[in-house]
Amino acid sequence: MSPALGLKEKMNVRWISENVVQFEDFPFERTFVVTVKQKTVQKEDVSNKGLIESYMEAPFEEIDFKLVP
Description:
This protein has 69 residues and is of the alpha+beta class. It is built from two helices and four strands.
């Protein structure tokens, strides 16, 4: 991501809380929220149905992450 933003060095980031990520040198103009779609597959489902079927049947979840300076 650093080269895509025109940065020569790696960005230093850390989790502030479960859904907040802090940048040491914030490369953006303002704080914003990113929504990520993911699936959570239960171990019990994988044991009973296998990984692929369990993944295909699992619903998508949307998780919001706030990026802050």
